[in-house]
Write a structure and sequence with these properties.
The complex is a heterodimer of chains A (451) and B (227).
Chain A (H helix, E strand, L loop, with lengths): L9 H8 L3 H27 L14 H12 L3 H10 L9 H22 L8 H4 L6 H21 L3 H10 L4 H8 L6 H34 L11 H27 L8 H32 L2 H11 L4 H19 L6 H29 L14 H24 L5 H22 L16
Chain B lengths: L3 E6 L8 H9 L6 H6 L8 E6 L8 E6 L8 H5 L5 E3 L5 E3 L9 H5 L5 E3 L23 E3 L4 H13 L12 H5 L5 E5 L6 H6 L4 E2 L11 E4 L7
Parallel strand pairs in B: 1-10
Antiparallel strand pairs in B: 1-8, 2-3, 4-5, 6-7, 9-10
The chains are: A mainly alpha (451), B alpha+beta (227).
């Protein structure tokens, strides 16, 4: 390991060492958003869920939409980071940490939505005390807590060498960093163990991540309701989750690139690669959406068609076509050619996808409930200021968590950048040679680094 | 063991809503007030649904009284994360108000919209309520119980007198109140009961039968007196 005091990457430690005025402004603004949500929640606790716009038959609205949306965003991190690590994509190095932080922070926000949505949050422990495994909600609880645990470990492990740098270099929070660094000295053996552990976690976390959004979709698809009861909901939700996750990752990267001056680390090439990944996911998302709606339409079941037309031309058409525009048309136009003005295009596409995927979740949750099978009056749902407050607060709280994280830990992995310079370059060259036909006997030495 | 069920004869139903009112009075179902009603939050365990008669479009309405259908394979009980709603051995789909966490998953899963949520505190305990039925708090789901408390009373009475419950001894408030005698209630497991006989009628059908929920509320189609 190089000297921890390597001044080349000093800029990565700068946000932890110094705090500018911008930080306080950001915290103040985000806190206002959180405060709005806190007031809304207090009002809701006092008056009951009646202060929202929910009713009979639309008994699920913004909160459940937010739940699905935020849990979806969590697939940005751990999953993408794990895949990039396992495939030894060298360009991952400045990205993985940012991605992993998103996962951990957003899982808290997503799981919190359920608490906000409960009529009796004081009885939430009943889920453990009287838990009934037949309910998909229990599957969610299991899967999400496993994912949160694995993601925390997976965030922390690759951070250990960086925490050791902070421990040795930074004057403040010495005890905190010492405990978290686990006595890291950077020895050969420690590196070996660490890389092995990271590799194990990367493999472990992928099936857990896939399971998370699959069982989130099961909340809907296990019921008999029209346009919910669908076999492709599992993979459809997972694809949407990764899609929105990449978009959120790109936006986070661009914000911190600007705020902390990380242009040297997060270069246009990174955004081009991520943009291409986003494009692939946009196509995949469209494919799933098309399949889902075509099968519904072709079968033409009466109940199914009520919901279908509600989305296509009815009261939800604005949301539906907005979703198609934001999730498919805009990203397609932005991302097909990325040679010039990469950053601007990728940012536009990402913001559009975030909006579009939120609309997608909404368009899945609400219309099905709006069209009951029996001749009830059809219910349209209008959220009140309480739901808007909770939604704004969820976004604000997520951003606040993320921001605070960057003040305590480096947002780009210092040691992995250094490793890229020192080991990665040589390793890639060696690896490349083994791909080529000219090499006589590919001398493969298992390097435990790339993991 | 008994299997409680109901037959509703749509030929006889006049849409008078006596069943609805009887149910509300019997089960302490709160009146939510005009403001909440306009926000579509009416609680009505028994609800008379109306539909335009497509064959006679001159303003004729068809009526469909809908209590909880007490499915034998209820979609709502499966999804409850805390076992707050379940099908009891005698076929009644019950709700444990003291355990419900208010996630409303059962409401989303019920194809008949037979479950209702307490969006606010709609009532507190007070005079004029039926002491046999607990008053529900805000934040929980409630539903038709086939007037389960009447079954308990009838059973205790029978037990004290060392005999079985007689047919007609246990009847829900809606069936009792119906002036047209459109609602018949009884034991579906007893082939000689009136409700079983009617359930075998060629006019008998179940709501959304194709879903496989096996409702124990059986309807008799309009036919004879229609037109």
């Amino acid at each position: 390991m190089a000297d921890p005091a390597d001044t080349r990457d000093a800029i990565l430690l700068a946000p932890i060492e110094r705090t500018g005025r911008g930080f306080y402004w950001a915290v103040a603004i985000l806190s206002l958003g959180v405060l709005w949500g806190a007031v809304a929640y207090a009002v809701q606790l006092d008056g009951g869920l009646g202060v929202t716009g929910l009713h009979q038959p639309v008994s699920w609205g913004f909160y459940v939409t937010n739940f699905v949306f935020f849990i979806g965003i969590s697939h940005a991190g751990t999953l993408i980071s794990a895949i990039l690590r396992l495939s030894r994509a060298e360009w991952r190095r400045p990205i993985t940490r940012m991605a992993e932080v998103i996962t951990v922070m957003v899982l808290f926000i997503g799981a919190g939505q359920i608490l906000v949505d409960l009529g009796r949050p004081d009885r939430v422990m009943n889920v453990i005390r009287h838990g009934r495994y037949q309910s998909p909600l229990l599957w969610d609880a299991t899967s999400i807590s496993a994912y949160l645990t694995a993601s925390l470990v997976y965030l922390w492990l690759p951070m250990i060498p960086d925490i050791a740098i902070l421990r040795d270099r930074l004057g403040k929070r010495k005890f905190f960093y010492t405990v978290l660094a686990l006595g890291w000295q950077g020895t050969e053996r420690q590196h070996k163990v660490l890389n092995r552990a990271i590799a194990v976690m990367a493999v472990l976390v992928i099936p857990i991540a896939v399971s998370v959004h699959t069982v989130v979709s099961f909340v809907f698809s296990m019921t008999l309701q029209p346009m919910w009861h669908s076999t492709i909901f599992g993979p459809y939700f997972v694809v949407g989750a990764i899609f929105s996750g990449i978009a959120a990752l790109i936006v986070a990267m661009l914000i911190f690139r600007k705020a902390y001056g990380l242009q040297g680390y997060l270069r246009p090439i990174h955004f081009r690669y991520l943009g291409q990944l986003l494009l692939v996911m946009a196509l995949l998302w469209f494919y799933f959406t098309f399949t889902e709606y075509l099968t519904g339409y072709y079968g033409g079941e009466v109940e199914e068609m009520k919901v279908f037309w509600g989305k296509f031309w009815g009261p939800f058409s604005l949301f539906f076509w907005g979703m198609v525009l934001a999730n498919f048309v805009i990203p397609l136009f932005c991302l097909v050619r990325l040679e010039r003005r990469t950053i601007g295009k990728v940012l536009t596409a990402s913001l559009s996808v975030i909006v579009g995927m939120w609309l997608e979740r909404f368009i899945i949750v609400v219309p099905t409930l709006s069209y009951p099978r029996l001749p009830f009056p059809e219910g349209i749902y209008w959220p009140t200021w309480v739901e808007w407050g909770e939604t704004a607060a969820s976004f604000a709280l997520f951003a606040l968590f993320y921001l605070l994280f960057t003040k305590v830990f480096p947002i780009i992995s210092i040691w992995e950048i250094q490793e890229g310079r020192e080991v990665g370059l040589k390793e890639v060259e060696e690896r490349l040679l083994t791909y080529l036909p000219d090499t006589v006997e590919p001398e493969f030495t298992p390097v435990d680094r790339g993991g | 063991m008994a299997l409680w069920g109901m037959v509703i004869d749509l030929d006889r139903c006049t849409g008078c809503q006596a069943c609805v009112m009887a149910c509300k009075a019997e089960n302490n179902v709160p009146a939510v007030g005009p403001k909440e009603a306009s926000r579509e939050r009416i609680i009505s365990w028994m609800q008379v649904l109306t539909e335009e008669d497509k064959e006679h479009p001159d303003g004729k309405l068809r009526f469909l009284p809908r209590p909880c259908l007490h499915c034998d394979d209820p979609p709502c009980t499966k999804v409850c994360p805390v076992y707050a709603t379940y099908r009891d051995p005698e076929g009644i789909v019950a709700q444990i108000y003291a355990r419900c966490i208010g996630c409303r998953f059962c409401m989303a899963a019920c194809p008949y919209n037979a479950k209702y949520f307490n969006w606010h505190t709609y009532q507190k305990e007070g005079p004029g309520q039926n002491p046999d039925v607990s008053v529900r708090q805000k934040g929980i789901v409630e539903k038709c119980t086939f007037c389960h408390h009447r079954l308990q009373k009838a059973r205790e009475r029978a037990l004290a007198e060392h005999r079985e419950i007689e047919p007609g001894e246990y009847v829900p408030a809606c069936a009792e109140a119906c002036p047209a005698r459109a609602i018949v209630f009884g034991d579906l497991s007893d082939p000689s009961s009136e409700v079983s006989k009617l359930a075998r009628s060629p006019r008998a059908f179940r709501l959304q039968e194709e879903l496989g929920t096996k409702p124990k509320v059986i309807y008799l189609t309009e036919g004879e007196a229609r037109g």
